[in-house]
Amino acid sequence: MAHQNLAQQRLLIKGGKVVNDDRSVVADVYVEDGVVRQVGPNLNPEPPTGLVVLDATNKLVIPGGIDTHTHMQFPFMGSRSKDDFYTGTKAAIAGGTTMIIDFAIPQKGCSLTEAFDTWKSWADPKVCCDYALHVAVTWWSNKVKEEMKSLVQNKGVNSFKMFMAYKDVYMVNDEELYAAFSCCKELGAVAQVHAENGELIAQGAKKMLAMGITGPEGHELCRPEEVEAEATQRAITIANAVNCPLFVVHVMSKSAARVISNARREGKVVYGEPIAASLGTDGTNYWNKDWAHAAAYVMGPPLRPDPSTPGFLMNLLANDDLSVTGTDNCTFDICQKALGKDDFTKIPNGVNGVEDRMSVIWEKGVYSGKMDENRFVAVTSTNAAKIFNLYPKKGRIAVGSDADIVIWDPKATRTISAKTHHQANNFNIFEGMVCHGVPVATISRGKVVYEGGAFNVTAGEGKYVSRPPFPPYVYKRVRQREQVCQPVPVKRAPYTGLVSATSITP
Ligand code: URP
Ligand code: ZN
Ligand code: ZN
Ligand code: ZN
Description:
Elements: E1 10-19, E2 24-32, E3 35-40, E4 52-55, E5 60-63, E6 65-70, E7 75-76, E8 79-80, H1 85-94, E9 97-104, H2 112-123, E10 130-137, H3 142-154, E11 159-163, H4 174-187, E12 190-194, H5 198-210, H6 217-221, H7 225-241, E13 246-251, H8 254-265, E14 270-274, H9 276-280, H10 291-296, H11 309-318, H12 334-337, H13 357-367, H14 373-387, E15 405-415, E16 434-444, E17 447-451, E18 454-455, H15 472-484
Parallel strand pairs: 1-4, 1-5, 6-9, 9-10, 10-11, 11-12, 12-13, 13-14
Antiparallel strand pairs: 1-2, 2-3, 5-15, 7-8, 15-16, 16-17, 17-18
Bound molecules: N-(aminocarbonyl)-beta-alanine and zinc ion (3 copies).
The site of one zinc ion (ZN) has 2 residues, from loops.
């Protein structure tokens, strides 16, 4: 096999604390051809020539982050998100993330396979780290069903997102949700929902505009927490009715998080994904006097004005009521946001996060004392890898795993700023946040792609990662329930008495 970078096919990470979701151990890590070959004390791989050695003394060696939710170069709301698959994945690796899962989203009536091929053609020449694609189901027909099957069986897709909001654009109704969830269950896929009541949002927006509320605060006011919580509850109820595992994307409110937490306690197979934004900042920004500042935080579902929301979501994440973290990275600059300067419904929805997620979670989760380093790994990579069937290739440092690794300095700090970030956007929703926990080096498939602030990566080096159906972590319980938890008819002797002979005519 030819190697673009011969010098880096063999790598030794020395003296760090290797952190997986279940334990931490001081060990060296030896990597060859992109795969972890040995983990143990005092490794001395031969020959010493041509070996890249990284010193990780007093540092943590963690699996690279997996961001379960991004929208790079997404054509949306009359614009296109600024971070493309190049700047977006470059920013990812600068922040310690080595894999993203983006969304291929067809218009209503359009082919899912074509959407998948389009997004893949955008990503392949540009990605700097590995990636996969969820596919959205925005309408329903037999063709959609056939395409879902083919995407699962031929294209390595094992998750589909359904929108309960964006009326007339992406929104599907309960009947369509039922059909899509049933199909996911048959195929061994994970159903994802954007949980907001799209009808209530449409009505609420009209009401706000009629009241003269045209600014970004109207975006939150027309879709308060219960709009998110109601849809979350409805999605869980429908998914449970067909025994389909459910993944609730971008959990933004305490109310919706409580619904998920309760459902998990009732034994339902449901997972919640808070994002860097909902864990790191809040919706008070919508009331900022500076329009551009307020608009920069507009996303759906919105950030919540209750300032205790981020801490609450972090508590639930620490205790496994919530399971995974993404970012919903979908950046629009101020000029793009200004499409809605006179009408908040026209502000393109989306915020940044792909570069900041790991540091924000370390700061608010680990530094604060809410979670330990192992839980940090669980919620930033391992759980995502398990749910989307990438484990233990991704989300673990062990012999045979892909060498997607980050050397993490838990003591170092950095201040997040649009002036220094690598994202294409000119605004950062975490501006000024001081974070402990800094990625010193990021390794993608055994190559040091980022070290000490410098990149060594070219567009297209990342790879598309296929995800097989029926992730055991999710589907073992589903399959068992399918076998033993079906209702059965009561065996009884047939009724032999009289049956009323009269029929009533109106
Ligand atoms: O505001 C958001 N979330 N933009 C991206 C589209 C979506 O709903 O995930
Ligand atoms: Zn080789
Ligand atoms: Zn969404
Ligand atoms: Zn999204």
